[in-house]
Design brief:
36% of the residues are buried. Helices cover 29% and strands 14% of the residues. With 280 residues, it is an alpha/beta fold. It has a domain of 151 residues: Collagenase (Catalytic Domain). Strands 1, 2, 3, 4, 7 and 8 form a six-stranded mixed sheet that branches.
Length: 280
């Protein structure tokens, strides 16, 4: 066999092996990435998804939860509650976030709110205002109805309601004055809504609640829930029950006290539709 012919056959065989290798590599690449190029290892099978996991987690700005700063490791565990003692009483006076926020929502009646933080609570009004805005902006918040818009205004501006962050003692007093008793075992425990006032209890804002913490639900999710729940009362919505074991809890369910077999859910709208449970 001529030497030139043998060289041609060896080159052809080498080219075929290279082609086969490339094809195998392409197949492996497709299997590893899955649809949309997302690594398959990042996707959980249905039976691997924890039943108590939040449906939607709305992370807060780093100014609200310092441990969620951009420099934190992506694999760091979520913040479930903040460390340290929580002031049980403040001065009873409030400072206001003087920012004007964007209009949240695309259509409907515009309702303006201001944000206030009690002096002596060791909380920042701007940070609290940012967290409230995150909760009310959605997607999934009350403005998803298409019939409501919300906007934060400075403390001295005309408004429809005020969102307060108050120590337990002050929250208890304000809620009682509004006709709501928030005490559990003698201590102001929950948050409430009084006429024109959405009152968030500092204990809950910093510590969440035991059944959220034991389920590993991030503090940011509880904060989103409690803002949407109490603002929901301000918008005229009443308490609702769990629609069935394993189903998402309606945002107007008293998730601070119990879940009754439902799963954590901080949003009034799911998949663009109002999600509700049986009225109580």
């Amino acid at each position: 066999m001529p030497r030139s012919f043998r060289r041609q056959r060896r080159f052809a065989l080498f080219a075929q092996l290279v082609a086969v290798g490339l094809a195998i590599g392409a197949v492996v690449s497709v299997i590893a990435e899955g649809p949309g190029g997302r690594p398959a290892a990042d996707r959980l099978a249905a039976d691997e998804i924890p039943s108590v996991a939040p449906l939607v987690a709305a992370p807060l700005p780093s100014s609200v939860e310092p441990s969620l700063s951009p420099s934190a490791s992506p694999s760091a565990p979520p913040v479930l509650r903040l460390p340290g003692a929580v002031p049980s009483a403040g001065t009873g006076r409030f400072g206001y976030d003087d920012r004007s926020g964007p209009v949240l929502g695309r259509a409907g009646e515009l309702r303006r709110y201001r944000v206030a933080v009690e002096s002596g609570s060791a909380e920042d009004a701007a940070g609290f205002g940012a967290a409230v805005e995150t909760a009310l902006a959605g997607p999934g918040s009350w403005v998803d109805s298409g019939q409501l818009r919300l906007q934060q205004v400075p403390g001295s501006a005309p408004r429809d309601f005020t969102v307060y962050l108050a120590t337990a003692r002050t929250a208890g007093r304000m809620c009682v004055e509004g006709g709501v008793d928030i005490r559990i075992d003698g201590r102001p425990y929950t948050s409430c809504r009084a006429p024109g006032q959405v009152i968030i209890n500092l204990d809950r804002w910093r510590l969440s609640v035991p059944h959220y913490v034991s389920a590993g639900v991030p503090l940011s999710v509880y904060r989103t829930y409690v803002v949407n729940h109490e603002v929901g009362h301000q918008l005229g919505h009443r308490h609702e029950g769990c629609p069935g074991s394993g189903r998402p809890a309606p945002v107007m369910m008293q998730q601070t006290l119990f879940l009754n077999g439902c799963r954590v859910n901080p949003w009034p709208y799911l998949d663009g539709r109002r999600y509700a449970g049986p009225p109580l």
